[in-house]
Specification:
The model is unreliable at 1-69 and 274-279 (pLDDT under 50). Strand 5 and strand 6 (201-208) form a beta hairpin. This protein has three domains: 3-54, no CATH class; 76-174, Alpha-Beta Plaits; 185-270, Alpha-Beta Plaits. Helix 3 (102-109) packs antiparallel against helix 4 and helix 4 (143-160) packs antiparallel against helix 7. The chain contains eight helices and eight strands; from the N terminus they run H-H-E-E-H-E-E-H-H-H-E-E-H-E-E-H. By secondary structure, the protein is an alpha+beta fold. It has an eight-stranded antiparallel sheet with strand order 3-4-2-1-7-8-6-5. Helices cover 31% and strands 23% of the residues. The structure holds 2-acetamido-2-deoxy-beta-D-glucopyranose. 2-acetamido-2-deoxy-beta-D-glucopyranose binds at residues 254-257. Keywords: Repeat, Signal. This is ACT domain-containing protein ACR. GO terms for molecular function: amino acid binding.
């Protein structure tokens, strides 16, 4: 899973088509073939089932949580590989509910990362906290580590702000309460490739979030012999929005290669889970 780095020119041109839709099962798959080592499927599956049961029985009793649901802001975790030359920037917001995030910093440091607190900005009701993260004096390039960073931040959010659980796809796997409205994976999945200069293209992916998604996506891209470098990895509640610089033999993707990549990604991202625990 080698990552090739390309830092070249600009110029955005063509856009490949995005969504089409077919009715299919809209379950959100679990970790996939590259699920993180940290995730232990069996207990999670059990926990999820228990959560679902309690939610269902609440519904049967007529309990409604739409009031509290509205009050809970959407958590956003953005991993930015572009803005700083030497460090990976992680930007985190959950309305105005986040404190100093010392535990999150500690959890990230426990992964062996150098973490410094960047700016904290408040814009209307949203407080954005930035961390600068380095590993071996450079930004983090390893997709496995990037996914660990993402899940570590989200796990801390779930731990200290359990109410975020129902707003995060990860709430279904690690939280106390799964999201009530799941994202329809067919509708939510968009894949677009644009030129980004002669030497590389920009790949945009939007899909239902799940643990291990980043690794899965990178595996799909590299399996088609395309070089990939992550640019931005966003988690916005239930949805993941990722940008990657991609290239083929040091050049941007031509139209046929772009289409192959788009079709591959759509196919895998929309595929219903195959290793689902049976009932
Ligand atoms: C696009 O690139 C691939 C790989 O180099 C090549 O096989 C294919 O013929 C190209 N297609 C077009 C339309 O240029």
């Amino acid at each position: 899973m080698a990552l090739a780095a390309f830092h070249h020119g600009l110029v955005a041109v063509a856009v490949a088509p995005a969504a089409s839709s077919a009715a299919a099962a809209s379950r959100v798959p679990r970790g996939g073939f590259l699920g993180l080592h940290a995730a232990s499927p069996a207990p999670l599956a059990t926990a999820r089932r228990i959560c679902c049961q309690s939610i269902n029985s609440a519904n049967v009793l007529g309990a409604s949580s739409s009031k509290s649901d509205e009050a809970v802001p959407v958590p956003v975790v953005m991993i930015d590989q572009e803005s700083d030359r030497d460090s990976t920037i992680v930007q985190l917001s959950f309305g105005d509910r986040l404190g100093a995030l010392l535990d999150t910093m500690k959890a990230l440091k426990d992964l062996g990362l150098d973490v410094t607190k960047g700016t904290v900005t408040t814009d209307s009701d949203v407080t954005q906290t930035k961390f600068h993260i380095m590993r071996f004096g450079r930004k983090v390039e390893d997709p496995d580590m990037l996914e660990r960073i993402r899940l570590t931040v989200i796990n801390n959010l779930l731990k200290y702000h359990p109410e975020s659980s129902e707003k995060l796809a990860m709430g279904e796997f690690f939280g106390i309460k799964p999201p009530e409205k799941k994202v329809d994976i067919d509708i939510a999945t968009h894949v677009v490739v644009e030129d980004d200069g002669p030497k590389r293209s920009m790949l945009y992916i939007e899909t239902a979030d799940r643990p291990g998604l980043l690794l899965e996506v990178i595996k799909i891209i590299t399996d088609t012999n395309i070089d990939v470098e992550s640019a931005e990895i966003d988690t916005e509640g239930l949805v993941a929005k990722d940008k990657f610089h991609v290239s083929y033999r040091g050049a941007k993707l031509n139209s046929s290669l772009s289409q192959v990549l788009i079709n591959c990604l759509r196919y895998y991202l929309r595929r219903p889970e195959t290793d689902e625990d049976s009932y």
